[in-house]
Every structure is written in C-alpha cells, then in structure tokens.
C-alpha cells in the first residue's frame, strides 16, 4: 500500500507541519474539518505544499522520521525546487482523482433551471 509523506502549512507559511498518511485527500479534508486541532484559528493548516509518494511502509516511516528532524531551512530547500510559489497542491490532486469540486455561488443570482423559449 502506498504511503505519502507531506508538508502542510498555513496561509502565511508560518508553520510547516510534516505528516504521513495513506490517503492524502482524506487527510487534507480532515485538516479542513478540524481547523483548530493542532493550532489556533489564525494558523489553520490548509495548504499542501509538498508530498512524496512512497511504496512501502518501512521506507515511508524512515523518510517521515528523517524529514521531521529537518530544520525549517532544510524543509524550504525541499519545497522550493518542486513548488517555488508555494501554491496549494490539493487542487491538482482533486483533478487527478476525478473529484469534481462544485464552485460555490457567492451572491450571484442563480440561473433558473427551466428556461423559457424565446419567440420572435
């Protein structure tokens, strides 16, 4: 079973949290559902900036322990070559897995479901 070692951060890139999981999308959803579990609300971890897919549990645990001991500068040196703008990688994962996220309607009028035929 594949394992993922990931680094997640808040919107200000103040905290870098290293984790390991088997289902990356479910884990990211968990962080979104429980925003104040690890930190207060201003430091909500919601931006996946780095992840590695590893085939075996032993290799994943060794890599997780290694990355967990890194300093902030070492973690940034890992992130910058693959994600220089520190964008959230969750959107790409959603696209790859075939999950369609429906955009929310922010105050725009909805389109009526039954349209009238226009006659001239």
UniProtKB/TrEMBL annotation:
PROSITE patterns: GIY_YIG
Every GIY-YIG domain range: 1-77
InterPro entries: GIY-YIG_endonuc, GIY-YIG_endonuc_sf
Coiled coil: none
Domain of life assignment: Bacteria
Record protein name field: GIY-YIG nuclease family protein
Lineage summary: Bacteria, Pseudomonadati, Bacteroidota, Sphingobacteriia, Sphingobacteriales
